[in-house]
Write a structure and sequence with these properties.
alpha/beta; D-Maltodextrin-Binding Protein, domain 2; 2 domains; ten-stranded mixed beta sheet; three-stranded mixed beta sheet; 36% helix
Length: 290
């Protein structure tokens, strides 16, 4: 009898301890805490998406950390973070490492079209730069193009786009996209390479101020000139347009995957649009009435 009573009490305690809060599933996308790392070049859109998601689900907390793209990828493999944002294509070795370390298939969740933008001081006579000129400058000992550091998304993407490796490129460094813009006037002969999202947010005073303090160069390819405008991101005609995507190591549909799904749905894509970037899943449609 005593043993039976002890067993019943044990079962009762177990049931109480496992009881869930009303309307909330433990480990669900609507509650919990995760960490996401992103490169500074697309911090603005990442911040906007996380803030919107947490406003929708008050029981969630997404810790957003800024870190160079390559290091974020390593942190994801070592399970130090739950979600990262990438812009370059992973190598075959990196994809295999992702599959092995996370136990998941490499499946990028694309959510926005962004770009690497080339800027010069406001009073510079230069209006454009060709892709060929960019290639030449990146082999020049004068290091006329300024990037925001090694292992950064901007450097990685440009190197990949030009079919070379970052360690073979010659460049100058000013840490941070904003710092490049703010200090560029000190180097009248240099060209800054920044992420579009740094200056893309419309109606934002800081973004507008940064944008107005430099001249954005048109990029010429095959005798055609392209500006880093949204319409040139839709069809990726701007030579240095890129697609941002999420990667996660979460093996179930929890907060990380819930946030990623939100970012790719209409509501999340509207947030991307308000950031001045091209949403990956929403394209402007023109209808002609006759």
């Amino acid at each position: 009898m005593k043993n039976r009573l002890v067993l019943m009490i044990s079962i009762f305690v177990l049931l109480i301890s496992c009881k869930k809060k009303p309307g909330v599933v433990v480990g669900s996308p609507q509650e919990g805490e995760i960490t996401m790392e992103v490169d500074e070049s697309f911090a603005s859109v990442s911040e906007a998406l996380t803030e919107r998601y947490m406003a929708l689900y008050p029981n969630t907390k997404i810790n957003l950390k800024i870190k160079k793209e390559d290091f974020s990828f390593l942190d994801l493999l070592e399970a130090k973070v739950d979600v990262i944002v990438m812009s370059r294509e992973l190598s075959k070795v990196e994809k295999n490492a992702y599959n092995k370390e996370t136990g998941l298939d490499w499946l990028p969740a694309k959510f926005a079209a962004d770009a690497v933008v080339f800027v010069v001081p406001k009073d510079s006579p230069r209006e454009s730069i060709t892709v060929e000129e960019i290639k030449q400058e990146l082999t020049n000992d004068k290091k006329n193009i300024i990037f925001d550091g090694t292992n950064s998304s901007n450097l990685n993407f440009v190197a990949q786009k030009l079919n070379t490796k970052p360690d073979l490129i010659k460049f100058s460094i000013i840490n941070g996209n904003k710092n490049i813009i703010e200090q560029l006037n000190k180097f009248p002969d240099k060209i800054g390479a920044i992420g579009l999202n740094t200056i893309s947010r419309p109606y934002d005073s800081e973004s507008e101020k940064l944008k107005q303090s430099v001249k954005i160069l048109k990029v010429v390819q095959d005798n055609k000139s392209f500006e880093p405008r949204v319409e040139n991101l839709i069809d990726m005609s701007y030579p240095f347009a890129r697609v941002l995507y999420f990667l996660t190591n979460e093996k179930y549909f929890g907060l990380a995957n819930g946030f990623i799904r939100f970012s790719c749905t209409q509501l999340g894509q509207i947030v991307v649009s308000k950031e001045g970037l091209q949403p990956y899943y929403i394209f402007k449609r023109e209808v002609q009435m006759r």
